[in-house]
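seq as requested:
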Amino acid sequence: MDAMVLNGEITSRRELVVQIPSSIAPGAVQVILLRTSAQKFARRRARRKIAHPAFGLWAKRDDITDSASFAAELRQRLESRGDGSR
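struct tokens:
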């Protein structure tokens, strides 16, 4: 088995586009994908979060120092409220 590193691109139609050197003979191949641009994926995911209307909702609140514990406390209060809705 010969190994070779080729750079390619996955299109929006979910197709892999790779330029094959002429020195490679036609035949069966095994493709292993290694995502080299993990940073681009993280940025795209971050943009989706920023676009959410609730993003930054507590940003200007001085009374919230730890947003994770504040959210956990809110959930706990909601789950244990006594109005019979849960």
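The beta strands are 8-10, 16-18.
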